Amino acid sequence: MKNYIFSSSKTVIYLAILGLIAVQSFFIWLFFLYTFDLSSNDSVVAFILGMRKIIFGVLCAFFAVCTIKNVMFFLKLDPHAKLEINNEEKYLLYMNIVDGVKKEAKVEFADIYLIEWNEARFDNLSFYEIFYKKNEVIKKIVVSNTLTTKLEKKIDKQIEIVKVEKLYFDEFPVTDY
Q1: In a shared domain, residues 101 and 143
Q2: Residue 144 and which of 65, 71, 122, 155 are 20 to 30 A apart at CA?
Q3: Residue 89: domain span
Q4: Tens digits of per-residue pLDDT, 128-164?
Q5: Looking at 65-152, which runs of residues are DSSP E strands?
Q6: pTM value?
Q7: What pLDDT, on the 0 to 100 scale, is given for residue 37?
Q8: Is position 171 within any domain?
Q9: Beta carbons within 8 Å of 166's beta carbon, 6+ residues apart
């Protein structure tokens, strides 16, 4: 049985965004470098080629805006999060600073009944929702993928995991304390 302690790091997301911008810029540069010249005598061909460039530019701008929107949501999620998984004493401890106050959610493995894996278009924006019961009240802990990956394999208990795929999130859920 192994114990784990994870803390939040934003370096991964920064590198992923820089890589995405570099790759997208390279393909945009290649696209405009190797397209046909618009000075063709045929106005229909020139119009089609011009529209192709405009549509391609609009699509690239749309995906860039969606990516930046998701990153802004992610940066607000768990800026000071720490996760401890203790398989010897069979508990999970999630700590975070919310509005300047340190909050903790300690859960015994026996109280956890469901883990929901929310998979985003970009892996660094994915997150887990750990559902548990405490005093007959259902609560949840939201754990970012940058905090830990393959959470269900790190907990020494058989827990049902549900996988949900969403491409873009309007709002990330928050942890119940």
Answers
A1: yes
A2: 65
A3: 4-8+79-165
A4: 889 999 888 999 998 887 788 788 888 888 888 788 7
A5: 82-86, 91-98, 101-108, 112-119, 127-134, 137-144
A6: 0.61
A7: 58
A8: no
A9: 118, 119, 120
> Cβ(61)–Cβ(157) under 8 Å?
no
In a domain, 174, yes or no: no
Pairwise CA distance, residues 166 & 143, whole Å: 16
Same domain for 100 and 69: no
| Torsion angle (degrees, nearest 10) of CA 74, 78, 80, 81 | -130
The rounded mean pLDDT for the chain is 79
Q: Same domain for 98 and 135? A: yes
* Whether residues 99 and 37 fall in one domain: no
Closest CA relative to residue 113, chosen from 84, 141, 146: 141
Q: Say how far apart CA 115 and CA 132 lie, in whole Å.
A: 9
Q: What is the pLDDT of residues 7-45, one digit of tens each?
A: 766 666 677 777 877 887 887 787 777 665 555 566 776
In angstroms, the Cα distances linking 119 to 40, 100, 147, 159, 162 are 46, 29, 14, 18, 11
pLDDT score recorded for residue 126 = 80
Half-sphere exposure of 34 (CA within 13 A, CB side): 6
